[in-house]
Each structure stands twice: as structure tokens, then as C-alpha cells.
Specification:
With 209 residues, the protein is of the alpha+beta class. It has 3 helices and 7 strands. A 3-stranded mixed beta sheet has the order 1-2-3, with helices on one face. The longest helix has 23 residues.
Length: 209
């Protein structure tokens, strides 16, 4: 009995090709439906609205209040304020925020689950005595490098100012107010490269900033 030669099943590679084509089309459709701006715009708005750590802490505090959290004060006694299933938060110095919830079945002595994060903002920070003598008609402000990378991206560009100030209210009490100017007031200039050696390297951040 003579055996017949086997014939490749062309339906298999054709089916694989069809599935691959369908997968690519689905991926292409998903990519076309993805809108990067839906992620980047909220982040850009957040960075613009909250240029300092004080603004960021205020922003997240408002979010927690909207989510049903109650703000506490470290000056108060909490034993009569905390309840099962309660949601609370407090701030310290306007630069840190601690939020926590109390479990429905929590009992004193039980353990806690904790998550920590860090908030900071790179800045040229105004010194406490920041006014310096005018130079060639320019008003100089004394600033200090804060939080590291005060690099070339800060130089030769318009800079605004933001932070918090302490003011006396109508009751003669001192309170803090957040400040954010939406227009540029300063610039850290540099020499053009063709000036040679004086333009090279980082400026002395104590005497030239």
C-alpha cells in the first residue's frame, strides 16, 4: 500500500495571520482612543496651581475634606473626637499632612497599616532678609538654593514667586496666607558662552544669587 505525501495545513498559518492582524487592529484602535492630554493636563494644572509645598498641602487638605475627612488640631485632645469608621487628618507647619482612618472594629492595641510619601518643591528660596542693594538699576533679591537641582533649567527664564506670608488680621492675630503671583518678577541671568571662562561652570550660589 502506497502512502500519500502529507500536505501542509495552510489553514493554520492563515488563521494565525488573521488573529495577528486582528490583534494589531485592536491595538491600533486602543492607541487612537488613548488621549495623553487626559493625564498630562490635570498634572500640569496641579503644578501650576500649587507651586510650593504649602500650596500642595492645602490642595490635598481640601481634597480630603471633600472626601469626608475631618481636620484635627494637634493642640486638642483627640480621645473624645475619634470614632470607629472615622476619617481624619491634620497638618504640621503647613508643610506636612497626615491622614488616617479608624477601622470599624478597631480596638486600642491593634496594629496599624501605614503608607508614607514625600512632598517637596525645587526652588530658589528667598532669604529672610532678601533685599539687596540695586545694581545698575536692577533690584536684586537674595535667594538660597533649596532642595538640590537648581540647574541650567532655572537660568535665563522668567520666574514668579509663591509661598506663604504671615499677616495680622483685624483681631490682631497672626495668621498665614498663601501667595502665588501669576506673572514673572525675576530672572537669574547668565553670561553668554562666547564670554569664555567667566561664563563656564555654576555661579557662586552664595555671592552671585
Amino acid at each position: 500500500m502506497t502512502k500519500a505525501a502529507s500536505v501542509p495545513d495552510r489553514s493554520v498559518p492563515q488563521r494565525v495571520a488573521a488573529e495577528a492582524s486582528s490583534s494589531l487592529m485592536s491595538s491600533s484602535n486602543a492607541t487612537s482612543e488613548f488621549d495623553p492630554a487626559s493625564y498630562t493636563k490635570p498634572f500640569i494644572h496641579f503644578m501650576t496651581d500649587n507651586p510650593t509645598i504649602y500650596h500642595a498641602i492645602g490642595h490635598f487638605g481640601d481634597q480630603l475634606k471633600s472626601a469626608g475627612f475631618t481636620k484635627l488640631s494637634e493642640k486638642d485632645e483627640w480621645s473624645d473626637k475619634l470614632e470607629a469608621s472615622g476619617k481624619y487628618f491634620f497638618t504640621r507647619n503647613g508643610s506636612s499632612l497626615i491622614a488616617f482612618t479608624v477601622g470599624e472594629k478597631y480596638k486600642p492595641g491593634n496594629g496599624v497599616a501605614m503608607i508614607a510619601s514625600h512632598v517637596d518643591s525645587l526652588a530658589a528660596k528667598l532669604k529672610p532678609v532678601s533685599l539687596k542693594a540695586n545694581d545698575e538699576g536692577y533690584q536684586l533679591l537674595g535667594v538660597a538654593q533649596y532642595a538640590g537641582a537648581l540647574n541650567q533649567t532655572w537660568l535665563d527664564r522668567d520666574l514668579g514667586i509663591g509661598g506663604r506670608v504671615f499677616v495680622k488680621n483685624s483681631d490682631a492675630r497672626i495668621e498665614t496666607k498663601l501667595v502665588k503671583l501669576d506673572w514673572p518678577i525675576a530672572r537669574i541671568p547668565t553670561l553668554a558662552p562666547h564670554f569664555g571662562f567667566p561664563s563656564e561652570g555654576q555661579p557662586n550660589r552664595e555671592t552671585r544669587m
